[in-house]
Amino acid sequence: MRGRWVVTWVLCGVSLVILTMLGMALGKDAASTASSIIAMAISLFGVLSVWAWRRSGQQGRSTSAQLVQAQDALARLVDRQWRREAGLRQLNSPAPLPVSWSDTSEAGICDHPELVGGTVSCRSDQAEELAAAFRRLPRRRLVVLGTAGSGKTTFAVLLALSLLRTRQDAEPVPVLFTAASFDPAQENVHEWLCRRITADYPILADVPTYGPSAVDDILASHRVLPVIDGLDELPEEVRAAVLTAFSRVYDTDAPLILTCRTDEYTDAVTATGALAHAVVVEPAGLATQESLRLLRQATAAGLSQQRWSCLADHVNEHPGGAVSEAFSSPLIVALARSVYAEGAGNPDELRDFTSKEAIEDHLLAALVPTVYATARRHDPAGRLWSPEQAHHYLAQIASGMQLRGTTDLAWWQLYNWVPVLSRTWARCGAVGVLLFLLTLVGFATGQALPEFAPEKLGSLEWIPGAVAVALPCMCWLAARIVNRPGPRARRLTGAARTALFGALAFAVVGVTTDRPDDTAPYAYAIACVFFWGFTFVLVLYSAGLPFPPLLPRRGTLTPSNRPRRLLLAVATFLGTTALAVAAFRLYALVVMTPDSPRSRPAPPVELPWTHGLILGALVGALQALLYWTRGTTSEQEVTDPVTTVRADRLVTLVGCCAGLLLVTLPYNLNAVLQLADPAKPGPAYDNVLTAFVCALLGVGPTGLMLAMAAHAWPYYTAARLLLATRGRLPWKLQHFLDDAHRLGILRQVGPLYQFRHARLQEHLARTVRVPGPRNPSSSPDLQPGPASLR
């Protein structure tokens, strides 16, 4: 903080000396020059003071008290989130399945016993026993194995809730993650966990409350217990790399819970070695009679409970039959509860099947129609989709996820399902065409207005073709920057490189179409690069690179710490406005002299003050609004897909408005200078309003498209609408997904959706016919692949 204030005073002092020497050299009126210098110095000091004050709180590390607050806030959010999710998944209805878990009997997949230092023996339906068994482990590192549908994820959720319910001070907070979002080739474990916690629980990024390093420090000090679910869902080579990262790169003293299918974990251990210091547990099969007892309790009291009696008698008569074997699986018991205990079906029909697999396939096929038919009977007016429509849409979604080899449905990645949006060259071309059309519409609108003569837009008529070339070039370079392996480019560096590339592309068109006859090509190209490079940087630095973001943006109009954020936003607005006003005042007194042969006779000094105030207030308001909107979310808000869509949409709309106005700023400044000096080349504007409208119609769409291309919501909206027109997805996609989640077909992990069971996703995907490959092409961009739902 002290260093920033030193920089502030030094810069103000140097600026004051330079301005004084400049005023004395030009021989201006002493009073006017002194007032301009004082105004400039005061404005500069105000802006730098805001910078020093605002940034000083982000230096250093979070304090111990802030880390305790951050850990407690994280515990409350995780508990609220997963308690609600457990209710929707019916993990405690009527009671958790009594699955017994104990040390694995598999040889060679567990670390040395003397390094592990403990054993585990517990049951899923005994919450206190779950937490106690885990706390007895010296290292608190656990691997949960089992076959598909054996209850690994349920065990992890119940264990996390049990630990949270009985959590003591300073105990690590269990946080659930899906392994599918981790790529060890792009980032290490610590960076990935920091990124996921910040994205799923953005309140922890509130620097004034929790300090600048809360997430990083609570991970480094082992205050978080990562619960990594679904290691088996990764490709084989990635699975081995992830296990290596957790075993050798991640701190071996840090607590950890990992779930995986037994065969996949065995293969990974064979390739890389066992997870260090971790106990490995596996489940025992459920007792069939215990399963039937729970199903009978889950059925409404009355005659409907008798439906299970015949099936129980069948199990007693055939203890080794298909039904008895099937009901030892937690997955089949959960499916039977949804199909028979809550639906109108009769479980007697299960006696006709001859294998466990046949019973599982029958229940998976009956799940979606039964659940939606039951919901429609209970609430006919509230159901927008019939069981047939719901099955069709869910099958299409499952097929798209299977084609991409993932169990996570991330709405901000939906653009990958549409070829024109997923392929870089196609996306760049589509953006260029759309911008060209919008710019033409802007020119046509401007020329149709009676107060704007065509000659006022004459100098901008070549812009549609230029921006149609520049914007795809910037999108292409942004894709290269984002997809480049290694550390990601800094925000300002990436924006500057992209803007320069776009300005060069723009200059090529400008030199060939708009260059005056008396201007050298290289001089005009340099001027064009500087002018448009500055224009593009203004938008790119505020909005981001024109590439689909890896994660949605977070923002709200009512963030936490509102008094402080409001004060900083007001200070940003006032400082930017004052600096612009002082700059125009200085221009009027130092550059535009009354006796200049190129200027109007005795121009009024009020003109630059007025224009500086207007333009400065505009830029200041935009910066303050962007700063306010991108504030952290409320501590009461739990991250889910619906809220992330709304937040990203808000940030997108604010960013697009800012881009629309910021891109016109250089033109507006140029128009103000021309008004003060009519001898300068360019169209003659009557006033600043005319210049602003002309620039808004001519170049405004460029800033709009640049800002739009940097956010996730436009890509998601375009993909959703395109897939809906083809009948692949419902028009109200988020409403449909939320409804499926409440009905128990989907489950939620932060901002992601997953199918209730991986087997359900596989079964639904098989019901969609996937066409065979087309003829191969020499171009990799034209190779057939999982780019679309066909």
UniProtKB/TrEMBL annotation:
Classification via InterPro entries: NACHT_NTPase (IPR007111), P-loop_NTPase (IPR027417)
Keyword ATP-binding: no
Region (Disordered): 768-790
Membrane-spanning intervals of the chain: 7-27, 33-53, 430-450, 462-482, 494-511, 523-545, 566-588, 608-629, 650-669, 689-713
Pfam family name, one: NACHT
SUPFAM superfamilies hit by this protein: P-loop containing nucleoside triphosphate hydrolases
Domain NACHT residues, every copy: 140-263
Keywords in alphabetical order: Membrane, Transmembrane, Transmembrane helix
Coiled coil: none
Keyword Transmembrane among record annotations: yes
UniProt name for this protein: NACHT domain-containing protein
